[in-house]
Fold DUF4834 domain-containing protein.
Amino acid sequence: MGFLLGLPLKLLALVFGLLRVLIPVLLLILVVRWLWRKYGGHRRSESAKKDEPHFKGPVYTVDYKEVKDDDRHKE
């Protein structure tokens, strides 16, 4: 009976021991990645080309319909 009770308890102790180490390591990695994206690395706004316009509001696109040139429309 000791084997049937001891083996699952040892496996649970092993799993919880690994979780005890892995959770702080994963939290540290997530915090470092978050800080790197927020403050470090390249800035997305600065990496854009300087000659491209910067829009602060919504940008609407329009699909234009091609029309044939007529003499009536030319001035």
